[in-house]
Every structure is written in structure tokens, then in C-alpha cells.
Amino acid sequence: MTTLIESEEHKALRSAVAALGKRYGRDYLTRTVAEGKPLTELWTEAGKLGYLGVNLPEEYGGGGGGIAELSIVLEELGAAGSPLLMLVVSPAICGTVISRFGTEDQKSRWLPALADGTRLMAFGITEPDAGSNSHRITTTARKDGTDWLLTGRKVFISGVDMADAVLIVGRTEDACTGRLKPCLFIVPTDAEGFQKNPIDMELNAAEKQFELVLDDVRLPADALVGDEDAGLLQLFAGLNPERIMTAAFAIGMGRYALAKAIEYARDRTVWKAPIGAHQAIAHPLAQAHIDLELARLMMQKAAHLYDAGDDIGAGEAANMAKYAAGEACVKAVDQAVHTLGGNGLTREFGLASLITAARVARIAPVSREMILNYVSHQTLGLPKSY
Ligand SMILES: Cc1cc2nc3c(=O)[nH]c(=O)nc-3n(C[C@H](O)[C@H](O)[C@H](O)COP(=O)(O)OP(=O)(O)OC[C@H]3O[C@@H](n4cnc5c(N)ncnc54)[C@H](O)[C@@H]3O)c2cc1C
């Protein structure tokens, strides 16, 4: 297994991205969120440096690497306090799906722009009446001549205000009930009949979430990515990178919170020694560090399997990595807030807002319970309750 020890190239990428992250850091994020703006400056610079498209093919302007490299980018930006959530979506899901299943025209139209960050694509699968059960999605595409007419509703779709298009998961009219036979459509955000309504989230993040209402959105035949019949295989080509990248997002955030807590615990003294000398403070921080490191190992394994083309093996590992990272992140943030005592809840120290942000990694893109279900059924062979 080559992933156990990080290669020199990966180490170099890690430290270069960390340096970029440090130049922006948490203050940049806090300031930009307060202004209600997206993280455009960081996104643009990361794009120019080639970090947003490290996973995309070189012939389309990408770095020719894989999810292993892209996860390093997101983890390091997160560890610096300024994660770019749309990395999970635009290059990781949409870029991957288009580069694996898109037509030549779709590739040349989208990939160079997704790679340098000049265009951005959101991803929409979640529906109000389906939630974790994607087999219940009802967004339906019907043929009208050679065009498609797409109708449905989506919720919690991230970054639609920043996106030029959304990769929408729907079904064709012929396959609109029963087990999901998904079809993926590139839907421009300025299309007629496409409506986005912001959802008021308790999240201190630059990326907003939206409800989408699609009312007979007319799309040309070539809005369909890949094969109408390729179904779940094609969808999972995008969902495994999403899980791996969510793990990277969680590990980055956990590392950021932990670093703040360690810095504080080294200095803060209310008895004879700094609070970090008390094992009640030190040990949970050490445990949080161990849990984050273990989660990263699983994330690296998942990325390695995925990049090697083992979609099935990557599926199990990506789920486990997302689970481990989400749990490690929630615990690290909780312990970091606690370590700072009252300061853990002040705006000045900026950790309290991570309590809700960390929960995202437990819920999305697939909840903790659905991963435990997956492992119970797929890995352990236990029966299903639903
Ligand atoms: C910040 C944020 C950003 C998001 N961005 C996107 C995006 O860009 N695109 C997109 O498509 N979606 C996005 N989502 C949606 C996300 O993927 C869903 O919230 C997630 O899949 C869970 O679906 P749900 O919220 O409908 O919860 P539900 O499915 O209603 O689940 C609610 C609870 O019930 C539990 N549960 C459900 N079924 C079972 C079961 N069989 N066994 C045990 N427990 C069960 C779940 O674990 C959960 O705790 C985002 C969500 C958030 C919070």
C-alpha cells in the first residue's frame, strides 16, 4: 500500500496549499462571511495555482492527479481556517462525472473552466420528500422532440448562487418510479423555469444552501451527461469522491479547531501550570488528534482505491472515511470549545460557530446512520430493517 507514507509530491502539495491557506486564514473567512460574500479571492488564486483542478485530466487544463491530491488541497485549506466547500462539488463530483462520462463537447466546454475555477458547478440530488432515500427522488425529465423538460424540487443544494450550472440527478419519464435509475443533467442556473430560494441555515459559512424549483426547464439533448441507462454506476463515480472530500473537509476543520485549543492550553494558566498540563484537558486533545489521524488514513485508502479505478472497494472505504472523519471532527471541535472555557463561546475566538459547521460532516452527504446501515448490510451481511 503506497498511501501509508505520503509521497514527496504529496508533501510538497500539502505545504504549498498550507502556505496559501495561511495567507488567507480564518480572519479572511470571518470577514468575507460577515460581508455576505463568497470566498472569491481565495477561489480565484487557488484556481490560478492549479489547485482546484488537480484531479482533472491534463488535456483539459487539470493537474492530471486524482482525489488523493484534491483531498490534500481541501484538508490544508480547512486546517488553515478557510475551507472551500465547493471543492467537494465542482471539481470532485461534477468534474469527475464529466471527465469519466461526458461527451467530448461537454469535456471541452466544462473541464478547463472547472479546473481553473472560472466556472463553477453545483450538484443537486437531495429532495424534500426523499432525503436519505434517493430511490424516492421524483425530479423527472420528459422528452419533447430532441429536448428534455425537467421538473422537480431539490433542497440543501450548496453554492447555487456562485454556480453557472447545477448537475441535477433526475429520472427519465420511463423510469420515474421504483429503484432509482438516475440520469444526470447539466442545468444552467439562468435557465427559464429554474428558481433558487436561499435556506436560512445556522451556519457561519460563505457557501449558502438553496431550495431549487424546476418547472419544465427546457434542456437540449446534450444536457444529459453519460448514458441514460448507465444508472447508479455513473452516479457513484461522483458520490465516492464527494464522501472522500467531505472527509477532507472534516479533517481540516478538526485540525484547525484542535490547533487553536492546543495553542490556548499551552498558555492559559489559572493554577500553577498551564491548563494543558492537566490530563483532563490534555488527554481528550490527544485523543482528538489520534482520531483525526486515523480518519485521514482511511481517507487516503479510499482516495487510493478510487484513483486506482476500484469503484466498489472505494465505496466501502469512502463511507468509512466519511464516518470516521465526521465523528473525529465533531469531537475535536467540541473538545476545542471546552478547552477555551468561556472563551470557547466568544465571537473573538471564533470556535463556537464550528459546532454547527462540524455537524454538517455528520449529516451530509450521507448521514452517520446511513453509513452504519451500509456497513451493517454490505460489509457485515446483516439484514435490513427498512
Ligand atoms: C450544509 C449542507 C449542505 C448540503 N449540500 C448539498 C448539496 O450540495 N447537494 C445535495 O444534493 N444535498 C446537499 N445536502 C443535503 C444532505 O445530503 C442531506 O441533508 C442528507 O443526505 C440527509 O438527508 P435529510 O436531511 O433529508 O435527512 P433525512 O433523510 O430526513 O434523515 C434524518 C435523520 O434520520 C436518519 N435516518 C434516515 N433514514 C434512516 C434509516 N434507514 N436508518 C437509520 N436512520 C435513518 C438520518 O441518519 C438522520 O439522522 C446538504 C446538507 C447540508 C446540511
From TrEMBL:
Keyword Ribosomal protein applies: no
GO biological process annotation, one example: fatty acid beta-oxidation using acyl-CoA dehydrogenase
Example of a GO MF term: acyl-CoA dehydrogenase activity
Cofactor: FAD
Domain Acyl-CoA oxidase/dehydrogenase middle: 122-217
Keywords: FAD, Flavoprotein, Oxidoreductase
Record carries keyword Flavoprotein: yes
Gene Ontology CC terms, in alphabetical order: cytoplasm
Source organism, top-level taxon: Bacteria
Annotated ranges, domain Acyl-CoA dehydrogenase/oxidase N-terminal: 7-117
Residue span, Acyl-CoA dehydrogenase/oxidase C-terminal domain: 231-373
Transmembrane segments: none
Stored InterPro entries: Acyl-CoA_dehydrogenase, Acyl-CoA_Oxase/DH_mid-dom, Acyl-CoA_Oxase/DH_mid-dom_sf, AcylCo_DH-like_C, AcylCo_DH/oxidase_C, AcylCoA_DH/ox_N, AcylCoA_DH/ox_N_sf, AcylCoA_DH/oxidase_NM_dom_sf
Family: Belongs to the acyl-CoA dehydrogenase family.
PANTHER family from the UniProt entry: DEHYDROGENASE, PUTATIVE (AFU_ORTHOLOGUE AFUA_7G06510)-RELATED, MEDIUM-CHAIN SPECIFIC ACYL-COA DEHYDROGENASE, MITOCHONDRIAL-RELATED
Protein name per the record: Acyl-CoA dehydrogenase
